[in-house]
Amino acid sequence: MSASPTDSNAPKSPPPDGPPDLVEALRDRYEIIREAGRGASAIVYYARDLRHHRAVAVKALNPDVSAVAGERFLREIEVSAGMQHPHILPTYDSGIAAGRLYFVMPFVDGGSLRQRLDKEPRLPVDEALRYAHEVAVAIAFAHDRGIVHRDIKPENILFYHEHACLADFGLARAMEEIDVRVTAHGMVVGTPAYMSPEQLSDGEFDGRSDVYSLACVLYEMLAGRHAFSGKTPRELLQKRLTEPPAPVREYRADVPALVDTLLTHALAMKRDERFQSAHELASAIEEARLEISTGRSAARRRLARKGARGMRRPFIWAGAVALALTVSALAAPPIRTAVAKSRAAANARAAALAEMKTVQDLELGRQVGTEAFALAAANLGKQVASLHGRDSLYAEGLIALGRGAFQNACASFDRLRAADSLDALAWYGLGDCQALDSAVVRDAKSPSGLRFRTSWAAAANAYVRAATLAPATNRALRYGMLSSLLPITPAQIRLGRAADGTRQFYGAHPSADGDSVAFVPYPFDEIVAGKSAVLSPSLPEALRRNRDTLVAAARRWTVSFPNNPESFEALAAGLEARGELASDDEGADGALRRARSLARTPDDRLRLGSAHVRVHIKRGELDAALDLADSLLAAVATNPTREQASRLVGLAALTGRIAREAELRAVTFSSSNAVRGIAPPLTSLSSRLFARAAAGVCDDSLLGLRRQLDTLLESYSEPIRRPQFRRELITRSMSLAYPCFGARAFDGLHAELPLDLAQRAAVRGDRRRAAAILDSIETVRRVSLPGEIALDYVLQEANVRAAIGDTASAIRQLDRVLRALPTLSQFAVREEAQSAAIGRAFLLRAELARATHDTAEQRLRARQALIVWRHADASLAPIVERLRSLASPLR
Asked: If I label 65, which of 231, 503, 521, 628 is the partner at 20 to 30 A Cα–Cα?
């Protein structure tokens, strides 16, 4: 019984077409429009789901069946409804209404395979094989969960979004096992034309019966007729037990012999002689499609043709068996040798498959690029000759990934995707090879004369496509993978290197390119210098598209896997970037709450909690933000991992816990610094310097730490690298300390950024020069929202403007951000200088308000800063006291 109506064009306001009692019983949930199909045991109605505003098919069992099926039916439908697979038609709902058992499925406007065969009895070979493969994959998925369909037939194969989907899972089993009175009413479980010999005889059958039934369907799609015909089930059984079906090539010459060989195997009378699982059948069909499309294994097809000709009639087939037995008796040693070779080949293939599984697990564990992955891929390369068809092509892609040959990997995975658009691992491989390929090549059509070899947008699409197709790839997908491929703030750039092997590095901001998003690479030093050419005027449009893409992809992901916290994290990020911060299902706050409720590990909870702190701040909920930050810091009080430290360091900076921030910063950077030759004592000391400078501590401890670092650099670094290390470990910290020490902050340090030049001009009293530099920075940022600019730089620039007497501009620059907190960068509480700048920005705005006699603004901003620093270290005590006076000025 199909869930597909015969006419997909429903009238806009049709009168109800169904039993009045059923229409009335379902009217609160479903509006029944018309009858769409009818069978021996059920009627299908086209209906509207009033709650979700979608078209559905409501399948209602006849009253006599419902009267005895009851609990068994609902239990079986509940089991089948738990199966989420792209080739299994989902079950939305089920229950009892007006004494009838019913279940609800998507409205399928593509019709059923039966309807298609009625119009075109013989389908194109590749089309028939594709449909059979899609159904075989669905059957295998169900069998892995202990569920046998029992009624594979064209009526139960529906076309949903141009792909074959299997319907009515659970219904056949419920029918078979209900009260004997149903059978007495003349019902037959299954359709005889597609039932296996064991299903027709003793009823003792397993998943191999579904394999047999699907082979019958494939035979019909190709031959335009049933594999067996008979007037009664007994006659059908007799034919199945006494003769094989005629080769399809007798009815259709364009069917390759290898397909006939496949069908002969799948339609074997004895279960032990068939494909032993739906997985095996799916692999055989896939290999046949690959061989047909690529023209490989011609010799193998010639053998298949000979074998097919030898089985055209029962007596010829029997004679061939007798001849084979005679030859085997006369030439036993050669046969034994052949058997031994066959076993050796099977063992080699099994070993290769095991090695491929190892590489696959490493890939899904995000280990591509590691030594372990490269070694496993190299081992697979030694055994790849034992693999064939789809396995061979997939292995070639993995091996290429292991070598870093991303173009070759993409070519292999793309061929797999072309052969089966629902191969999740092919899509995942495409995501990897495109995301990991950072090569930049020459392109005269590009504004910079350069382009990236691969597309990040395509990589993101491939990952999401994979995640919605299979549980394994869903579990492997991480929010961080999507967020890096779909930049949603100007701070995110794509890094690359020259494809010719030179040590030239590049960077790119996203830009709109037609209907998609592109990255135009420029030399990395031009990106750092902030040259105007590197920021396309279309950057805001590109970011908007990425945000919309991320939201749309995340919504698909959450629907396919509603218990995956990563999917809701991605949704929250996209909604947050669009400024949709509501606490319901349509807002970032609501999505984050859902993600946190699903979090499985402490690291997941920490990552999601940190994001929620940021959203609370954007929503103006400072007390909630600080409460959550305090609890997250308390949850990992000692011995944090590097990943935990990197998540907590911004929260420590936000709350004014300077000593804790310095410890966490040292943990975060110790390993990477050590690799680059920066010794742990230098990392520890520089972390203390940075934490105090970022918080705005203005005492002699800063200058003392600076002197200690200069001394240690003499002992822990080579003279040739000392200037580089000084820039990395000291310059940024002393730039942050400029409001405290003025010119002393820059002693012995070179200016690195335009901001540094503006600060130096200000301390020299060159107000015009300082203002000109700051104005030029504003010009470069013409395509960014104020909140998208790192808050620590906004704060520092406002300090410079205030220092040169331009109080109005300083206020305007701060207010553009503080009055639009929802636009803050996604790094606002992750990167410690930005986190520390939140309290400092409130403080500076309060002081500027006092200077302009704006008492209301002064109190507001001072009180906000006091909330942020309510548990700050003693080092901030002088600042907190100043804030208290600003928050409660004398009247």
From this structure: 231
